[in-house]
Design goal:
- The protein is mainly α.
- The protein is built from 11 helices and no strands.
- The longest helix is centred in the C-terminal third of the chain and has 39 residues, at about 180-215.
- The radius of gyration is 24 Å and the shape is flat.
Length: about 280
Amino acid sequence: MPGGPLAELAREPSAYRWLRTAGWGFARVFSLVALAVAWELAARSGAFTPYMLPALSAVLARIWSDLVAGDLVLNTGVTLYRALVGFLIGAAAGIALGMGISRNRFTHWFFDPIISVGFPMPKIAFLPVVMLWLGVYDMSKITMIAVEAVFPVVTATIVGIRGVERELLWSARNMGATERELLWQIALPAALPQIITGLQVALPIALIVAIVTEMFMGGYGLGGAMNTASRFADSRGVFAGIVEIAVIGYALVKGVMLVRRRLLLWHQEAQAPSTV
C-alpha cells in the first residue's frame, strides 16, 4: 500500500519528529528532574539545616571539586575495579556451577542444598570472618563481592537450562548429539536470556557489596570516601557519594541492557521496543 503509518511518519517534518523525540526523552527523565527540583527547594526552604540536607547545587559543586582534584576518578576507579572483578568471578563460577547442577546428578546432590540455604541468607554477615582470614585489603572485598554475586547467577542458570524445551533435546539426541554438545550447543544458548537476567541482578549487588565493604574496612573507594566524610561531619561529601553511586549504578545497568540486546538479537525480546 502506498499509504499507511510508516508513509505518514516519513512525510512528517524533521523538526516535528525531533520535537516528539525530545518530548519522549524528557518524559522518561521527568521523575528524576522533579526529584532534583524538590530536593533543591526543600534544602532552601529552611525546613532542614545544611547538615541534614545540603542543597543539590552544593552537592554537585562538591562532586565537581572532587573531580577536578582527582579524588572522584581515583575512588570511582577503585570501587569499579573491585565490583567488576568480584562480579566476573561470581558470574563465571555461577554459570559453571549452574550448568553442573543442571546436568550432573552428583553436583546437584552436593551443591543444591548449599545453594538453597545460602541464597536467602545475607552473606554480608560473613564479612567479619572474611576480614579475620583475609585482612582488610582488596582480597577480602573482592571475595565478599564474588560470594554475593554467585547466587543469582547460579539460580538463573539452573532455571534457564531446566526450562529448555525437551523436544529440542530429544531431537538433538536423535540426531546423534553427545551430552557435551547438548549442553554447549542447545541448552546453554537457549538458557542465555535467563542467564543474562541473573547477571543483571548480580551486577548491582556487586556494586552494593563493594560500597558496603569499603564503608566497613575504610581506605580508597566511594564507600571509604563516604565513611570518611561522615566521620568529619561532611554532609556534602556523604550526599555527593550517594549521587555518584546512583549515577554509576544506572550506567552499569544500562550497559548490561545494551549488551543483552546485542547478544539476544536472535531472541523475540529483541524485537520488542525498549521501555527503559
